[in-house]
Amino acid sequence: MPGLILAAPSSGSGKTTITLGLLRALRDAGIDVRGAKSGPDYIDPRFHEAASGAPCPNLDAWAMTPGMIAGLGAGPGLLLVEGAMGLFDGAAPDGRGAVADLARQLRLPVVLIVDAARMAQSVAPLVAGFAAHDPEVRVAGVILNRIGSPRHEAMLRAACPLPVLGCVPRDARLATPSRHLGLVQAEERPDLDAFLATAGAVMAERIDLAMLQSLAAPLPDAAPPRFDPPAQRIAVARDAAFAFVYPHLLEGWRRAGAEIATFSPLADEPAPVADLVYLPGGYPELHAGRLATNRRFLASLADRPVHGECGGYMVMGETLSDAEGRTYRMAGLLGLATSFAERRLHLGYRRLRATGGPFAGTWAGHEFHYATTLRAEGTPLFEAWDAEGAPLPPAGLRRGPAQGSFLHLITPAPLDGVGGGA
């Protein structure tokens, strides 16, 4: 089936809003359409799913092999891949993992979304430069965003050296709320369907949907990936506090024969009977007071294998302090105390080697959080290296059957020469 990449010169160009509007507009027009998101992102894919009604995978050119990317991208209908950051922006030192890598690997054309609010004829060298930068990345057309007036639109169209699929005006109805990790989660927006309907109507009016579809190219045919599961029966926490889990991991474990059940810590549901309890990341700091009083949930974690990522890791600790400095008792499975009273950004891709436990082996992962570690006592869980191969301090903790870290696992992967890896 065909696909297309929606990218931009930089972050903040309006890619997400335009992608969501296009997904909804095409769906409303009776087109079988689905979305995908470039890079490590938990939030945007859930909006894609709400807009299109179809699952949205992450396609990560830094962490995943081309074969895995092709397998995750395969499926029915038109695929719109929303890029991250700028088209050629990736990890240090060489930009690996950029949206352009997906364009090369999948051989998909790119539609460039340009924030034209503060330019007119200068759009010409900008677009021409992106189109000529890499002959293996074909920029096939342009969507001009945040247009101020019909006169402004006419000037831009006359100057643009590539086909213009549409011009989207500045519109306060298309603004989206955000917090420190990005957009507010899809399930937290009671107005989501109304917002998507408005965005879809705007894109249907302002963008040539037939022209957009005509630019799409065939996707490679590949089978979806499967992964060796960390346990046969896995209980996964799933609610507004524990929403950051990669569907490709869960589905890959299922394909390999694992049984997966979900439960809600916020509803004080105990973890079901399983060989492993998996506490993903999310926003536990926003719900710390409620989680601290959910005794059935907390008691169900004792004396059994538990793995926590980022937010889940913090809940496994002894205390968690929120942004106002209020401190709450958590599960006490690990010698860990964390706080959001003083925020500090931790961000980047990671190469990892587990020191033991159910996720033994080497992994590609990432870190993105603002929490401060006040105390961490115990055996480290991972050896870690950054995207450039530089060694990092050991990460995470292990104690008995409990383990966790701030790191989000993306896929099993070789160490690519760091730390003695292949």
Structure keywords:
eight-stranded mixed β-sheet, globular, 25 strands, Rossmann fold, 422 residues, alpha/beta
What's this, in brief?
With 422 residues, the chain is an alpha/beta fold. The protein is built from twelve helices and 25 strands. Strands 1, 2, 3, 4, 5, 6, 7 and 10 form an eight-stranded mixed beta sheet that branches. It has a six-stranded mixed beta sheet with strand order 12-11-13-14-24-23. It has a five-stranded antiparallel beta sheet with strand order 22-21-18-19-25, with no helix packed on it.
Describe this structure in words.
- It is a single chain.
- Helix 1 packs parallel to helix 2 (44-52) and helix 1 crosses helix 7 (192-206).
- This protein folds into two domains: 2-218, 3-Layer(aba) Sandwich (Rossmann fold), CATH 3.40.50; 233-420, Rossmann fold, CATH 3.40.50.
- It has 422 residues and is of the alpha/beta class.
- It is globular, with a radius of gyration of 22 Å.
- It contains twelve helices and 25 strands.
